[in-house]
Amino acid sequence: MRKLLYLTLSMALIAVLTTYAMWAADRPVGHYLSDLRINLAVDQGVPADRGNLLGIQPELFPTDYQSPERLHRKLAAYLQKAKNQGLLNEKTIVVLPEHVGTWLMVSGEKDELYQATTLKEAMNWLAVSNPLKFVRALISAQGGNRLDDAHLRMKAKAMAKDYQALFGGLAKEFHVTLVAGSIVLPEPSVIDGTLKIGHGALYNSSVVFGRDGLPIGQPQRQIHSVFAEKDGIKANGEHSLNAFDTPAGRLGVLIGRDSWYPENYRKLDDQSVQLVAVPAFVAGRGTWDQPWRGFRGSSTPVSVNLKPGELSEGQAWQRLTLTTQAPASQATAGVSVFLRGQFWDQGSSGQSFISSNGQQFINANAHGARLLNLWL
Fold first, then answer.
1. Is the peptide bond before 247 cis (omega within 30 degrees of 0)?
2. Which residue segment(s) compose the domain that 352 sits in?
3. Rounded to whole angstroms, how far apart are CA atoms 185 and 159?
4. Is residue 356 a part of any domain in this protein?
5. Among candidates 153, 151, 113, 130, which has minimal Cα distance to 344?
6. Domain at 175, CATH number
7. Whole-model pTM?
8. Domain count, the chain
9. Mean pLDDT for each consecutive 10-residue tract of the chain (376 residues)?
10. Is the residue at 217 inside a domain?
11. The CN hydrolase domain covers which part of the protein (predicted)?
């Protein structure tokens, strides 16, 4: 009798595990509708032979990331609209927002994840649908929040591959230099023209792709990460900033809050950087108009006189971005591009803007996806 009970329980357990494995492996692709429209919100300067800076502020949602092909379709539609309006040429530098690559972590998942109502629920589906990957990532997780670290780390190899194929492919397809926003990966580096991951800490990094679709130099890691203490995304301890040679001139990339620090502009000046790209992200739907909360987690630079609460988040971003504001920055032009959209219960805000000749140009009344163009 005991043997029969053990046999019955074993068979039931095998059946449950088999059913779970089949469920976890099933990845049906649901019906997909997405708004591919984009408007030209800012267009400054006169076309010449020096090229242009083109910021793309997309409006993205979880279903846009259900596959790299879907995300390609949306971003390619934006670029095609720019091409149709005469905004793309061999010297064009296209800039995408911060974390546009990070959400590749939810690519190829089950419908339950995309239909979740909260980010926490979506991350639970991510873990349950990929049990082995999640357990391995949790074992090697670092930082104070091991769950968040594991969620970001568990599909890092596939994310890096998709990121290069997608954004490098767009750069080659449209023959432009492309600043591919940013992506969170463990110890990212470019080896023999391929983006690779390591086994160490997570870094929020940006890769610049040339017109041939290949990375230019090494990934630019974020120096001042707002998530460094809470979520384990490391700050770039080396405090190094790269200069990228492009057909339009030497380019520097300041990710998010890195654009708030005067010392970073001095470092770019020392490398004769002429153009500055700022991929950025502001969480929360109304945050842009709410009181600024200061530098949070790092000391305020001596030369910065702003205090938390005395101006809005948006005003602080515009005031602290020093691109083209001599003598703080010798760069001739720059663009700050924010990620917009809704990821479950996590909204976003931020109004992209252009910096030129000591002035900033912004169209706060525009809605939806936007193009911001500056002729150099």
1. no
2. 31-107+155-375
3. 8
4. yes
5. 113
6. 3.60.110.10
7. 0.90
8. 1
9. 52 45 50 79 94 97 95 97 97 98 95 94 93 89 84 95 98 98 96 95 96 97 72 65 96 96 95 97 92 83 87 94 91 96 93 94 83 97
10. yes
11. 147-288
